[in-house]
Phosphatidylglycerol--prolipoprotein diacylglyceryl transferase (Pigmentiphaga soli), 265 residues
Amino acid sequence: MLVHPQFSPIAFQIGPVAVRWYGLMYLVAFALAWTLGRWRIRHGKTPLTLRDLDDLLFYCVLGVVVGGRLGYVLFYKPSHYLAHPLEIFEVWQGGMSFHGGLLGVILVMLAFARARGRRFFEIGDFVATLVPLGLAAGRLGNFINGELWGRPTTVPWGMVFPQAGDGIPRHPSQLYELGLEGLALFALVWLFARKPRPVGQVSGVFLMGYGVFRFIVEYTREPDSFLGILAAGFTMGQWLSLPMIVLGFVFYAWSARRPPAGAQA
């Protein structure tokens, strides 16, 4: 049996300014996206320019933060925040949703595509290759904070999370998500995008890959106490992942009828 190391939530402090690990992981995520994006642009993997990348990442930060917060409010605790609307702005108390952040980024990409005269899926395919490592950084932040722990287990690597308050060994589901939604998904999407693909197909692979990996990991992750298990024995995370899988398949099938995009060779 393992015990969570109980890291300090503060990575480092400069005077009165404390930099928390979770916030630092967000910076790491966008730094990785910027680095990978520049590599793809310089190697001719996308028709987007370096200026496009800088502007797109700036707006995507807003999409992730605003969409992630509103997604958590609407998907997970609508009645609570309806009764306490000012708490919506208390982001330092935690409460972000990946699916909400994804919707926020999609809206940003739609607006960006229209403003720059580019195809939406052209941007989507580019962004899809940059996201997974950022997700891995976020899940590492969850593990450092000792939050979003897994369900009780008897596996040898079961870990006691003191924050859970019960002393029961649990799945380190944050690390499972880091490995699947982060590293495995990155390898899948990055390798798939190495060859010329029809516009929209890389986006489809990303959506299907994330949806399937998240759906699987949810079986080891402790459901939110205020929601529990929902219809059909699924968690909220699983119900939100199902549309991703379906849409990913639709995008993949639709794009398969189109010629490969030469700019992505």
